[in-house]
Amino acid sequence: MKLAEALVLRADCQRKAAQLKQRLERVIKVQEGEQPAERPSVLLEELRKTLEELTVWVKRINRTNSHSPFDSTRSLSDALAERDQLMQQRNMLNDLLETAAIKQDRYSRSEVKFYRTIEVNVLQEEVDDLSRKYRELDFKIQEKNWSTELLEE
Fold first, then answer.
1. 74 C-beta neighbours (distance < 10 Å), count
2. Chain segment 47-67, per-residue pLDDT in tens
């Protein structure tokens, strides 16, 4: 099985667990004299099994990522960490750009006027560069996911 297939199965388990939680929330309390639409004990057992299966997938994926070379100097895990760092940095700088987009709601000269303390165009270029680097790295990671065999337990 390829790593990409395992990632899909992990995502399926995550979705199923979230759906089971929602179903449990709907039946965990009922009005006096009413019966729940589904048996909470059955849903709880299914949730437990789904979470156990999810844990197996996560362990196998993590093991594969840490033991699979991405390039001559990095493992797949290293590349994933770098991709996450690029996205986090990009998101933070983008948030700063949003804050720097000052909207002046002054109705008289006595109200406070705000000025930017950063060069918005320079920051925007950095955000664009980080976005490009993220996309390029993500594409290479996806490529590796489809060519890497998932390690056994």
1. 13
2. 999 999 999 999 999 999 999
Nearest CA among 7, 132, 125, 137 for reference residue 81: 137
- Say which residue the tokens 């667990």 belong to: 17
Q: Report CA-CA distances (Å) from 48 to 55, 68, 129.
A: 11, 30, 43
Model pLDDT for residues 129-138, shown as the tens digit of each residue: 999 999 999 9
Three-state SS string over the chain comes to CEHHHHHHHHHHHHHHHHHHHHHHHHHCCCCCCCCCCCCHHHHHHHHHHHHHHHHHHHHHHHHHHHHCECCCCCEHHHHHHHHHHHHHHHHHHHHHHHHHCCCCCCCCCCCCCCCCCCCHHHHHHHHHHHHHHHHHHHHHHHHHHHHCECCCC
Per the CB < 8 A criterion, the answer to whether 150 and 3 are in contact is yes
Spatial distance between the Cα atoms of 89 and 128, rounded to a whole number of angstroms: 11
Dihedral, CA atoms, 42, 47, 52, 55, nearest 10 degrees? 170
For tokens 């001559």, name the residue.
72
